[in-house]
Amino acid sequence: MKRLLALATAASAVALALSGCANYSSPAASSSSGSASAGGPALVAAGKLTVCTHLAYKPFQYKSDSNKIVGFDVDLMDLVAKKLGVTQEIVDIEFGQITSGAVFAAKKCDAGAAAITITDKRKEATSFSDPYFTATQALLVKSGSTVKDLPDLKGKTLGVQTDTTGQDYANKYKDQYGYTVKVFDDMPSGANAVLAGTVDADINDNGVVYDYAKDNPTTTVVKEFNTGEHYGFNMGKDNTALQTTINSVLTTAKSDGTYNTIYKKWFGVDAPK
């Protein structure tokens, strides 16, 4: 069962009913060690779990009205920070630097938490945690648009986010269906282009496009594509200690109900079993 089937249904119902930068997340226990928690992985900064992300990607990570970075990924990584006895510090950086492993080679971050789909290509550059979320690609259009699927985009323009699996999917079919791909640096830019009418559609992960449509009821999600993607937190290839810690935290959170509580907080439904 896909994790986001329930999410998509719930988000659609809500929609119908309605019509680098750094930031500290919630503090965990303080660390009394140097660059590593006792018996844990070495960290790039003492007393901190430094996490790279790429804003904004609501509801996974984005800035709240109080200018604090919040979201589903943020809450999960707070659990990891707590396990290590440190606080989480979030660094906003280009998505491609996270997936390529450049941030780890440069010691800018300990981990990446940016709704990152695990792919074979990305696994060549970085290590990943166990999967923690299932997603698929989805098509966002202006309400009332005649575009319902990729074939309807012939002669039109499709927005994508750079360095994403959505961009890969769009490029795979652009010649077959005769549309032009326009690349944006982040998710909001592509979605806002749909709202402004400068692109005919935008493709991105279904969790974020449903959330966007809920907040912007003059847009709607018309199609999901069965891409069967799984998110993972990533880290440097040599950081097996952090990988082990994250996997342990995820396993515990799923077994003791914490994961479900966090999932329901951000998506309004229980996490699929």
Give me a quick take on this structure.
The protein is an alpha/beta fold. It has ten helices and 13 strands.
Structure description:
With 273 residues, this protein is of the alpha/beta class. Helix content is 38%, strand content 23%. The strands form 4 sheets. Strands 10-9-11-8-12 form a 5-stranded mixed beta sheet, with helices on both faces. A 4-stranded mixed beta sheet has the order 1-5-2-6. Helix 1 packs parallel to helix 8 and helix 2 (72-84) crosses helix 9. 47% of the residues are buried. The model is unreliable at 1-34 (pLDDT under 50).
Please work out how many helical segments DSSP would assign.
10
Provide the low-confidence segments as ranges: 1-34
For the report, how would you describe the main beta sheet? 5 strands, mixed
Instruction: Write down the overall mean pLDDT.
Output: 89
Beta-strand proportion: 15-25%
Termini separation = 8 Å
Quantity of strands, as a count? 13
By secondary-structure content and strand pairing, the structural class works out as alpha/beta
Order of helices and strands: HEEEEHEHHEHEEEHEHEHEEHH
Helix content: 25-40%
- Adjacency order of strands in the biggest sheet: 10-9-11-8-12
Give the overall form: globular
The rounded Rg comes to 19 Å
Using brief descriptors, characterize the structure shown.
273 residues, alpha/beta, five-stranded mixed β-sheet, four-stranded mixed β-sheet, 10 helices, 13 strands, disordered N terminus
